[in-house]
Amino acid sequence: MKYNGSCLCKAVTFEVDGDFENFYLCHCERCRKDTGSAHAANLFSSSAKLTWLSGEDRVKTFDYKSGHIKSFCAECGSALPNIQMGGSLLMVPAGSLDVDVNIRPQGHIFCANRANWDNELEKVQRFEKLPE
Asked: How many domains does the chain have?
């Protein structure tokens, strides 16, 4: 399977060739901080190959205390894929893909660190666009 992705400003584009084995919604404090949201939505593969199609020189990687790695576009700040675990694991932020994925999230992880406002969100009013 091939997946194309990019950052928000399109300065960086990439392709992932292969399958994702795991898809987790991570609620750890580090993922909440670096996404500014309730959780990160990350795809993982031990066999897929990442190819930068454009803008590789704009990809910055931050390794927080040798354990929490985040790659992002230096222009717009969008989260981008990175290689972890000594090169054995590809992590792809699901929102960075420009195409649908054929795997659903398998679970919420680090729920003990879940934000106190991240409960029963399915009951919150929904809008198709910005409310007036």
From this structure: 1
